[in-house]
C-alpha cells in the first residue's frame, strides 16, 4: 500500500463520517414536522427515515456523477484536496448541528471541496459554471418556490376543512403526513448519499483507481454510503429537529402534510433534472411557507433569519475551514502524515463534542407539541 | 449566465412543483372533506365515499409518479 492508497483510505473514512453527519443533520428534513405533530413517535419516525435513506441510496447515481464531475476539475484534484474538503464540511456540519441550525450538508460539502481546491491549486480548479448552474441558482430558487407553493397548499387545505372540528379534520392528514415525509426521506437518500458516493469516486479517480472517462460508482461505495447515512439518520439530530419542528412555527398535521408534500414534489422535480438540491433549503422554506398559510399560525422570523444566515455562511465557512485544513496537511508534507494527524484531531474533537452533547442533550420528547395542543385522545399516533 | 443556466429545465422544475404541490393538497383535502361529510350524512353516502376513494387513488398515483422520478433521473 503506497502513500496515495493510505490517503484514499483516510478520504473514505472522512467521507463516511461526513455521510453520517449528513444523516443526523438532515433527519429533520423528513421527520421534524411528523414528530412535532405526533403523527409518528420520534424513534419510529427516525427508524422509517433511516430505512428509506438506505433504500434511496441504491436507486440512481445521477447526483453522484454531478458532484464528481461538475463542481471541481476531477483531473486536477488530489485525494488530499478532497480530504481537506470533507473535513471542512464535517466541521461546519458539527457547528451548525450544535447550534440547532438546519443548514445544508450539500452546500457544506461543495463549499469544502471548492475551498480546498482553491487553497491547493487556485480558482482554475473550480468548475464555476457548474457551481452557478447546478448549485447557486437552484439553491436560490428552491426555498422561495417551496415556501410559496406550501403557502398556497396550506391555504387551500385549511379553507376546505374550515367547517369541521379541528381534531376530526386532522386525523386524515396525519396519515398523509407520514406518506409525504417518507417520500422526502427517500428523496433525501437518493440525493445526499450520492453526494458522498461522488466524492469517494472523485478520490478514487484522482488516485487512479477509477477511470475518469467512464464514470461508475463501485458497489462497495454505494453500500457503505447507504449504511453511513442510514445510521446517521437513525441517530436523530434532535437539536435540528427541535428547531424545524417547533421553533420556526407551530406545526399542525394539515400544515405538516402540506409542507412535506410540497417539499417532496420540489425535491423530486429538481433531482429528476440532476440538480444536487439542498433538501434542507426546500423543507425549511416549505415549513415557513405553511406557517404563513395556516390561519392563526405565526412564523418566528428571528429563527428564520438565523437559519437563512446559516445558509449564506455555509458555502464560504466550509470553504475557509477546508482551506485551513489543507494548509495544515500541506505543512506536514506531501504524504499521509498530515491527513492522519487531522483525522486524529477530528476524532478527539468529536469525542469531546459527544460528551458535551450528552450533558446538554435534547430529548426526543421535548420536540412533540405541548399536551394542550395535541389532538383529541382518541387519535392515537400512527405506528403505536 | 443565460447560457450557463438551463432556464428551460428550471422553469419545468418550477411549474411541475407548483402544479403538483397545489394539486395534491387540493385532491387530498377534497377526499378528506368528502369522508367527513359521509360520516355526518344519514342518507346514501356512495357518491361521497367514491370521491374519497378517487382522491386517495390520485394521491397514490402521485406517489407512484414520485417514485418513477426518483428511479429515472435525467
Sequence of secondary-structure elements of chain A:
HHHHHHHHHHHHH
By secondary-structure content and strand pairing, the structural class of chain B works out as: mainly alpha
Q: Please, what is the average pLDDT of chain A? A: 84
Spell the H/E element sequence of chain B. HH
Biggest interface, which chains? Answer: A-B, 50 and 36 residues
How many helices of chain B? The count is 2
The largest β sheet of chain A comes out as: none
- Give the overall shape of chain A: elongated
Query: First CA to last CA of chain B: what distance?
Result: 22 Å
Helix content of chain B: over 70%
Largest sheet of chain B: none
Number of continuous helical runs of chain A: 13
Descriptive notes:
- The complex is a heterodimer of chains A (384) and B (74).
- Chain A has 384 residues and is mainly alpha-helical.
- Chain A contains 13 helices and no strands.
- The longest helix of chain A has 41 residues, at 166-206.
- Chain B is an all-alpha fold.
- Helix content of chain B is 81%, strand content 0%.
- Chain B contains two helices and no strands.
- Chain B has helices at residues 7-40, 46-71.
- The longest helix of chain B is centred in the N-terminal third of the chain and has 34 residues, at 7-40.
- Chain B starts with 6 loop residues before the first helix and ends with a helix.
- The model of chain B has no long low-confidence stretch (mean pLDDT 86).
- The chains are: A mainly alpha (384), B mainly alpha (74).
- The A-B interface holds A 56, 59-60, 62-63, 129, 132-133, 137-138, 141, 145-146, 148-150, 152-154, 156-157, 160-161, 164, 168-169, 172-173, 176, 179, 183, 186-187, 190, 254, 257-258, 261-262, 264-266, 268-275 and B 1, 4-6, 9-10, 12-14, 16-18, 20-22, 24-26, 28-33, 35-36, 59, 63, 66-67, 69-74.
Amino acid at each position: 500500500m503506497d502513500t496515495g492508497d493510505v490517503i484514499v483510505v483516510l478520504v473514505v473514512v472522512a467521507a463516511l463520517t461526513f455521510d453520517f453527519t449528513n444523516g443526523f443533520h438532515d433527519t429533520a428534513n423528513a421527520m421534524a414536522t411528523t414528530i412535532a405533530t405526533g403523527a409518528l413517535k420520534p424513534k419510529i419516525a427516525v427508524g422509517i427515515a433511516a430505512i428509506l435513506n438506505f433504500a434511496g441510496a441504491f436507486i440512481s447515481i445521477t447526483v453522484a456523477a454531478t458532484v464528481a464531475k461538475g463542481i471541481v476539475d476531477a483531473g486536477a484534484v488530489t485525494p488530499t484536496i478532497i480530504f481537506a474538503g470533507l473535513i471542512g464540511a464535517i466541521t461546519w456540519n458539527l457547528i451548525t448541528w450544535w447550534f440547532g441550525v438546519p443548514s445544508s450538508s450539500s452546500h457544506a460539502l461543495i463549499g469544502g471541496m471548492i475551498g480546498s481546491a482553491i487553497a491547493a491549486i487556485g480558482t482554475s480548479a473550480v468548475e464555476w459554471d457548474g457551481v452557478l448552474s447546478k448549485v447557486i441558482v437552484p439553491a436560490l430558487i428552491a426555498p422561495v418556490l417551496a415556501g410559496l407553493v406550501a403557502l398556497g397548499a396550506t391555504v387551500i387545505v385549511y379553507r376546505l376543512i374550515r367547517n369541521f372540528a379541528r381534531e376530526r379534520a386532522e386525523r386524515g392528514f396525519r396519515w398523509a403526513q407520514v406518506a409525504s415525509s417518507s417520500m422526502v426521506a427517500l428523496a433525501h437518500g437518493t440525493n445526499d448519499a450520492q453526494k458522498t458516493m461522488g466524492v469517494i469516486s472523485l478520490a478514487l479517480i484522482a488516485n487512479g483507481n477509477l477511470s475518469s472517462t467512464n464514470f461508475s460508482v463501485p458497489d462497495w461505495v454505494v453500500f457503505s454510503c447507504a449504511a453511513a447515512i442510514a445510521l446517521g439518520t437513525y441517530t436523530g439530530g434532535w437539536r435540528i429537529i427541535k428547531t424545524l419542528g417547533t421553533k420556526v412555527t407551530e406545526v399542525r398535521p394539515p400544515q405538516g402534510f402540506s409542507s412535506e408534500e410540497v417539499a417532496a414534489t420540489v425535491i423530486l422535480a429538481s433531482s429528476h433534472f440532476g440538480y444536487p438540491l439542498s433538501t434542507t433549503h426546500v423543507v425549511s422554506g416549505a415549513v415557513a411557507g405553511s406557517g404563513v398559510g395556516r390561519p392563526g399560525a405565526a412564523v418566528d422570523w428571528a429563527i428564520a433569519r438565523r437559519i437563512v444566515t446559516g445558509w449564506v455562511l455555509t458555502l464560504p465557512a466550509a470553504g475557509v475551514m477546508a482551506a485551513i485544513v489543507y494548509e495544515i496537511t500541506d505543512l506536514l508534507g506531501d504524504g499521509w502524515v498530515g491527513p492522519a494527524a487531522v483525522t486524529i484531531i477530528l476524532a478527539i474533537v468529536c469525542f469531546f463534542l459527544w460528551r458535551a452533547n450528552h450533558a446538554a442533550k435534547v430529548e426526543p420528547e421535548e420536540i412533540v407539541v405541548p399536551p394542550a395542543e395535541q389532538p383529541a385522545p382518541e387519535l392515537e399516533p400512527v405506528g403505536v | 449566465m443565460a447560457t450557463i443556466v438551463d432556464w428551460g429545465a428550471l422553469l419545468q422544475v418550477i411549474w411541475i412543483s407548483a402544479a403538483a404541490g397545489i394539486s395534491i393538497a387540493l385532491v387530498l383535502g377534497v377526499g378528506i372533506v368528502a369522508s367527513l361529510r359521509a360520516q355526518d350524512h344519514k342518507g346514501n353516502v356512495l357518491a361521497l365515499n367514491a370521491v374519497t376513494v378517487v382522491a386517495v387513488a390520485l394521491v397514490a398515483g402521485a406517489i407512484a409518479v414520485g417514485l418513477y422520478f426518483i428511479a429515472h433521473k435525467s
